[in-house]
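FAQ: What does the model actually see?

It sees only this:
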Amino acid sequence: IGLHGGADNPKSFEGYSQVSTLREKTGEFIAVYPKGVNKHWNDGRANVGAGVDDVAFLRALVKHLKRDLKLPVAPKKIFITGISNGGLMAMRVACEHPRWIAGIAVVAASETKQLSRKCSSRLLPMAAVFVFGDQDTAFLPSGLIVNPVKQKQLRGKHIGIDQTVSHWVKANHCGQFNRSRPINAVAADQTTVVKRTYQSCKKPVVYFKVKGGGHRWADSTASNGRLIRKMLN
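And it is asked to produce this:
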């Protein structure tokens, strides 16, 4: 399940994420791209998507795929990826229904204060991938979440990507040591990526730190078009 960011749409997310391209190449999974009400997901913040039960919606979507479309959706084979507001929504589902999904991949988002208070002690082991740019313009180092286009618009508070990853390292019972390795620079924007893989986890935890990266999906259209595949390997 691919979740677009706030003010975005499914078609746009499908295009830049290239999840469908990966699906066509591998044939190993089904990709779906739902649309949030008013282009947003209710990720738990009071001022974003309030009043809409998107957790129930996503569960109903999977039931529809299995029951009505007869697609082979197996229990614990559901993965959710999302960017920004969509990434927060993925973490909310992981918190509230950890036995329902197998893993999440969160891009350009870290846990909100609300999710942290509610979920840090409730998380169960599941695969977790995080991609975050150290120059993100929405999830600021100050702990504020703002509109990346209109930065005076406050959208909440977050705990930071390092603490977010730490919650999943603890939930997955990972060891104390991790392995980090650089990935080649992306020629189009000169960012570099460091992949951090945690060891001895019940379920894998991987963190891609995009040095010089902003509030966006990693640039897979640059001359180093293998970036996405390298991240997955």
